[in-house]
Amino acid sequence: MKGFRFGMEQKAKIILKNVTKTFGPTKALDDVTLSVMKGQSMALIGKNGAGKSTLISLLTNLYKPDSGEILIVSEENNSEIKEIGCVYQRSSLTPYLTAAENIAIGNFARNKLGLINWAKVQTRAEDLLDEWGFAHIAGVQVSDLEPLEKKIVEICRVISTGSRILILDEPTAGLDITSMELLFERMYAAHRRGVTSIYISHHLQEIFQVCDAVAVLRDGKLVEVNDISAHNIESLVSLMVGPEANKSKIVQQRGRSSHSVNRKEILTINGLTVESKLKSLDLKIFEGECIGVTGLDGSGHNQLLEVITGVTVPTSGNMVLRGATISPGNISESIENGIGFCPEDRHFNGYVPALSVAENATMPIHKEFRNKFKLINSKARESSYNKLANSWSIKAWSPDQPIEELSGGNQQKVALARAVSSNPHLLVLNNPTSGVDVSAKDSIYKTISDLIEKKQTVLLASSDISDLEICDRVLVFFGGEIVGEFEKPIQDAVIAAAVQGKN
Q: Is the dihedral of CA 21, 27, 32, 36 positive or negative?
């Protein structure tokens, strides 16, 4: 491991010594030793599954290491302290409380009678926010704040607990360029005040703006710790994917996939534009093809899925599905036109918690089970569900079992089954194996592959290279445009470089 110059324990704020953590047969972290000094901004990078989330879970005491030691120490007297906080990618703010109330949640200032001292709550929030240049928003309801202001409130809430060590997980998610630059300025000032941060981002260009050091994880091992100035994006990608992946070769090719030869066009997109997110996109998807799309958050591939499935109305452009122009912005119409969709977050919009597995899986086709009295024929619905359950290997004790009682993998399979229940012409999948274990992943891959063999057309968006390996070709998005198109075999190193805008 190069450049382990940050391991001066007498000056360090965070010390990990030979830390190992396993989950079943998987060694998530393998003998990791790392030190981060006071006032330092350490980038923590790696592919999905490299061990970043596990390391953060250990630092925040969600898990305990199987072996090794984690210390958070005071620079002044080298004594152990507990002052670390995490600002997660997904907001945990309460929208209908003010910024000051959100900052104070769980730690309200109280008077001698034990009642909340609202004046102190407000003053304390103003003082914290003032350090970041946002004292004026203390009394504003969070739902009325801009994305950057919400991010600052979350940071101040962590700092309000006494923490001077911040873990920032994809902190620029949802921010525009101007907000990002302002956040970086505020973070730079915070580091000068002695705030220490571990900065996690898939956007490698960001870490060169805000971090002074970088730690690279690969397959649970720490493979590099060094000054950020010692690297560029290419060298970091190489460390993330490893030497074996870099030996792989692939021919980059634009235009029609070999799999599309002599096949009918299912979907044709011309000049599709979503303001500031997609730039005049042209795309053709062919019958029986599995086409993958990927990119960093905000690169445009998710916006493509939203337009196709009727969630987002484009600024301009048109779409032709099986020879007929379809109007955007109508989810029901997209389903009627033969588009099936499995969203990324099954908990948010992938299923209805109060319903059974059969009701959820057959939701798009519930009209087919109504009799002349408009009542549901439960036997017909159950028969349809059983076919879907068999196809997706859904494990439930009964079609009537509440979906909330299923494992995460089986809940995801129900969401996928729902997407194909209407026999769509185009099946759109957004991160289809998100949050499932290895066994469920393999089962989902097999079913998708079986569908493709039966000429099902699939558009699959994912940041997981394992998902993309089943695709005939993969389109990489960056800055709202397609910057690379790759055919099988899909190679990790090539995709990792392309998502950073490097070909």
A: negative
pLDDT score of 259 more than 60: no
Per-residue pLDDT of 483-496, as tens digits, reads: 999 988 888 878 88
Listed by start position, the domains of the chain span 12-246, 251-338+425-503, 341-423
The count of other CB atoms within 10 Å of the CB of residue 293 is 25
Judge whether 12-246 and 251-338+425-503 match in fold.
Answer: yes
Buried b (16+ CB within 10 A) or exposed e, 425-439: bbbbbbbbbbebeee
Q: Which fold does the domain 341-423 belong to in CATH?
A: Rossmann fold (3.40.50)
The two structure tokens encoding residue 451: 């569908």
Architecture category of domain 12-246 in CATH: 3-Layer(aba) Sandwich (3.40)
Task: Collapse the DSSP code of 138 into the 3-class scheme (helix H, G, I; strand E, B; otherwise coil) and give the result.
Answer: coil
pTM equals 0.73
- Backbone torsions φ then ψ of 301, nearest 5 degrees: -70, -35
Unique residue bearing structure tokens 């382990």: 4
What architecture (CATH level 2) is domain 251-338+425-503? Answer: 3-Layer(aba) Sandwich (3.40)
Q: Give Cα 74 distance to the centre of its chain.
A: 34
Q: What is the mean pLDDT of residues 12-16?
A: 81
Residue pair 36/59 in contact by the 8 Å Cβ criterion: no
pLDDT tens for 289-327 read 999 999 988 888 999 999 999 888 899 998 999 888 888
Q: How many residues does the chain have?
A: 503
d(Cα 146, Cα 262) in Å, to the nearest integer? 50
As separate numbers, helices (DSSP H) first and strands (DSSP E) second, the chain gives 17, 19
* H or E element that contains 290: strand 290-294
Return the bridge partners of 252, or none: 486
Mean pLDDT, the chain, as a whole number?
Answer: 85
Which of 353, 350, 326, 349 has its CA nearest to residue 337?
Answer: 326
Q: Are 17 and 69 in contact (CB under 8 A)?
A: yes
Paired residues of 395 in beta bridges:
none
Q: Which residues pair with 485 in a beta bridge?
A: 475
Q: What local confidence, expressed as pLDDT, does residue 247 receive?
A: 42
